[in-house]
Amino acid sequence: MGVMMQAFYWDCPRLEAKEFGWWNFINEKTAALGKVGFTALWLPPACKAANMGGMSMGYDPYDYYDLGDIDQKGSLPTWFGLRSELEALIKVAHQNKIQVYADIVLNHTNGADEQEKNLFDGQTRWTKYNPGSGKFARDWTCYHPSYFERWDGDTFDDMPDLCHHNPYVYGSLMEYARWLIEDIGFDGLRYDFVKGYGGWMIYAILERLYKKNGNTEFSPFGLGEYWDSDINITEWLSQTNAFSDNPVAAFDFPLRRRLKDLCDSYGFSLKSLTEKGTLVTDGKAECAVSFVENHDIFRADPIINDKMLAYAYILTHEGYPCVFWQDYYNNGLGREDNKNGIAALVKVHELYAAGSTGILYCDDDLYIMQRHGSASQKGLLFVLNNSGRWNGRMVYTQWAETKFTPEAFYGKNNTEIPQDKWTDGFGSGEFWAPPRGYVVYIAVDK
Fold first, then answer.
1. Model confidence over 247-273: pLDDT tens digits?
2. How far is the C-alpha of 188 from the C-alpha of 90, rounded, in Å?
3. How much is the average pLDDT of 356-360?
4. pLDDT value for 155
5. Angle at 77 between CA 76 and CA 81, to 5 degrees
6. Of all residues in the chain, what percent carry a pLDDT higher than 90?
7. Residue 395 and residue 415: Cα distance in Å, rounded?
8. Radius of gyration of the chain (CA)
9. What Å distances lie between residue 69 and 32, 78, 105, 310, 325, CA to CA?
10. Distance CA 229, CA 277 (A)
């Protein structure tokens, strides 16, 4: 399925001294990311934000069609750069066989130009918008409450909620999605705060066929942020994807909570990794985007210890893994020059991580799994060790009389390189991992 890079984090333009130049900064890294094996970039909201109190990350959209080419809300560019620089980034990404996903905020807007009285309930709100693009101008009838939809229980930071049942709003958002895909060049859409509006809106956008690069039947990738339990995420996926030919995916928030416990909680049992309660372990891996950190959760509840254990899990197991920019670059976990970092795991994922998952052994401190492979990817064997010493055991694999070599590995306070392993005629062999570490073994010959 590929590996996604979340190519931003909160306040990244300021913290990296790349204000109004973030698109160019990503562009400089794109070829190297493609070489490692990344297949998609998830970008922050690209449109002009309200920028109330200073430049913002874009989750307070004002003019959906201003991508940094209209002088309004305090600047010509967005905090990330000019429209021309965004389009150049997308072009370079495509040249390196990397898709680009737009983060879109369809629940609410901010920075209205005037206050209006809502004739439905008589209250005055900031709902009159005259965007510089001249597209999708809005007034009180575009927001809740309205004659089209009276109640909306999920507001977002008191920003006015769009009423998607208003035909004008619905048509404008459908056109906005078309414009991003067909005219700007995005390959997929990440939907912010999907709890705030009906899944039917996402269904309509993803079910539509688009024209892209001469292809008149292009279907974009879709990913929803539904921050909740596995049961509620699954219910949302079922409702949104009913009868869909292009189903939306969802972030696996329950899996992330479990991975944080793996890294940060003393006495965590690896048996928990096999239990139901996440999209991946509930058999919903085809709709699951697994992740270790993102721009929101890193600020509120970051993983503190041994984060590579979590990355090793998501990049060897089923699901669509997403790597966090700040971990890869700023926190030094990319390590493109050796087998101890995220880069080696990405390469392993793209070359070998295919097929169903088979748990070969699991106790509190040792977890051994194999991916069965496919016609084009031979599979892998993964050993995760939760103890403070080298740990392993004999297991029966699907590969008989085969040599295995460690392609990615890590151990806490350990510099010893794992050894090659062999299986006998029955497929059995001993596989080990370093203290608080992992090894990904690859079958190299028979």
1. 999 999 999 999 999 999 999 999 999
2. 12
3. 97
4. 63
5. 165
6. 95
7. 25
8. 23
9. 28, 8, 19, 40, 26
10. 8
Residue 32 phi/psi, 5° resolution? -65, -40
Distance CA 294, CA 35 (A): 23
Under 8 Å between Cβ of 432 and 337: no
Do 204 and 229 contact (CB within 8 A), yes or no? no
Q: What is the pLDDT of residue 150?
A: 80
* 166 vs 144: CA distance, rounded Å: 10
Q: Are 20 and 13 in contact (CB under 8 A)?
A: yes
For 162, what's the count of Cα atoms within 13 Å in the CB-facing half-sphere?
29
The answer to whether the beta carbons of residues 76 and 96 sit under 8 Å apart is no
> Residue 95: exposed, middle, or buried by beta-carbon count in 10 A (0-12, 13-18, 19+)?
exposed
Per residue in 364-374, pLDDT tens? 999 999 999 99
* DSSP SS3 for 24: helix
Contacts of 396 (CB under 8 A, 6+ apart): 360, 426, 427, 428
pTM of model > 0.90: yes
Domains of the chain: 4-109+152-251 (3.20.20.80), 357-445 (2.60.40.1180)
CA distances from 390 to 75, 407, 409 (A): 56, 18, 13
Q: Which residue has the tokens 């416990």?
A: 261
Helix residue spans in 265-399 (DSSP H): 297-300, 307-314, 325, 342-352
Say yes or no to pLDDT of 153 above 60.
no
> What secondary structure letter does DSSP report for 427?
S
Q: What is the pLDDT of residue 215?
A: 76
Q: Is the pLDDT of residue 73 over 90?
A: yes
Longest dimension (CA), the chain: 80
What is the pLDDT, as a whole number, of residue 154?
A: 58
Measured distance CA(361)–CA(173) in Å, rounded: 49
